[in-house]
Design brief:
The chain is α+β, with helices and mostly antiparallel strands. It is about 25% helix and about 25% strand. Helix 5 crosses helix 6. Bound molecules: uridine-diphosphate-2(N-acetylglucosaminyl) butyric acid (EPU).
Length: about 350
């Protein structure tokens, strides 16, 4: 474990923003992490834990220590007739973990294929796509408390999962580092193909009786046509959350904009796709110098190379203001702005 000074984070955030960390260090085991947390030069600094760096926008140099999580390993910890409980190190790359489950014919996260990021970041914001959320297959996680170095266990309830939310983004923000996540995966698969684009893609693939492998292939196809590959164009996936608004407000909106898409959330709340709201305000495909709004998905902000985090933050603010102005709806970033 080597503490490095003035370390460029460009390769460690999928937006590809060129900022520096005052200190940077990698850890590959829980013991190494605990050792680091006892070091005075680490203790006195502000800390930032980076996994895949796929949900962060850096707007300035980080004047503290960046702890890069590289805890690896996947093991079966329990098995019953219907399930396999797989425990994965939090530094595993998410999609590689998905591929592992597919290779072992375990169902549950095929819809979450190709999401950038690490296993440890997945529960933090309860990643979700195409009708499935992490919480649907989550069993428990282990996390180290920054202030004490102690390991704590969190189950589905104590994580307080919500839409792109967990206790680690709220009450316990910045207090724990997730070190391992255990998933409850299915031997008998229950496919979720309710999402329209999955059905269409499976039809195009001429698949009659889909398997988890087909669903994963369909999801990979949809994602790669709609969403920019961070290896080619800097981005952090959806920049904003889809806003949830009261039904009465939605009805007024619908009267004014009859085409507005929506998904029911409860008897009194409706989710409106932020991508639609942003597109209606004319932002889709907008190119501003070296950055802009993706041409196929207005919810995704992109860095074509060399943009400053501050420029992307300003773009996000301008989008929020114009959506609020036109629709009276305030968008909230999903991405962690630092
Ligand atoms: N839409 C537009 N214009 C756009 C984009 C979307 O009109 O430019 C409208 C369309 O009506 C479309 C609807 O929005 O049918 C939904 O779009 P899409 O299926 O692309 O999904 P989303 O709501 O924009 C959410 C997640 C994605 C996830 C997809 C699929 C959030 C914030 N985002 O996007 O997650 O992959 O659903 O389930 O909930 C991420 O979190 O980084 C992410 C990519």
């Amino acid at each position: 474990m080597k503490l490095e000074s003035d370390y460029s984070l460009k390769a460690y955030n999928t937006f590809g923003i060129d900022v520096k960390a005052k200190l940077f260090v990698r850890f590959g085991t829980v013991q190494e992490l605990q050792q680091l947390l006892r070091m005075p030069e680490v203790q006195q600094e502000e800390k930032l834990i980076l996994g895949g760096g796929s949900n962060v926008l850096f707007t300035k140099d980080f004047e503290g220590v960046v702890l890069r999580n590289e805890i690896k390993g996947i093991e079966v910890v329990r098995e019953d007739e219907q399930h396999v409980y797989l425990k994965a190190g939090s530094g595993e790359v998410w999609h590689e973990f998905v591929l592992y489950t597919l290779q072992h014919n375990l169902g549950g996260i095929e819809n979450l294929s190709l999401i950038p990021g690490s296993v440890g970041a997945a529960p933090l914001q309860n990643i979700g796509a195409y009708g499935v959320e992490l919480k649907d297959v989550f069993h428990e996680l282990e996390a180290v408390e920054l202030s004490t170095g102690k390991i704590h266990q969190f189950d589905n309830n104590t994580c307080q999962f919500g839409y792109r939310e967990s206790i680690f983004k709220n009450k316990l923000k910045g207090q724990y580092i997730v070190t391992a996540v255990t998933f409850k995966l299915h031997k008998q698969h229950k496919l979720n193909t309710s999402y329209g684009a999955i059905q269409t893609t499976l039809q195009e693939m001429q698949v009659q009786q889909p398997t988890i492998h087909d669903v994963s292939a369909a999801v990979c196809h949809i994602r790669s046509t709609k969403l920019p590959n961070p290896k080619e164009i800097g981005n952090a996936g959806s920049f904003f959350k889809n806003p949830e608004i009261p039904l009465a407000q939605f009805e007024r909106l619908k009267a004014q904009f009859p085409d507005v898409p929506s998904y029911p959330v409860s008897a009194t709340t409706v989710k409106v796709p932020a991508g639609w709201l942003i597109e209606q305000c004319g932002w889709k495909g907008k190119v501003l110098d070296k950055y802009g709004v993706h041409k196929n998905q207005a919810l995704v902000l992109v860095n074509y190379g060399g943009a400053k985090g501050e420029q992307l933050r300003q773009l996000a603010y301008d989008i929020i203001a114009s959506v609020e102005d036109k629709f009276g709806i305030k968008l909230h970033p999903e991405v962690n702005i630092i």
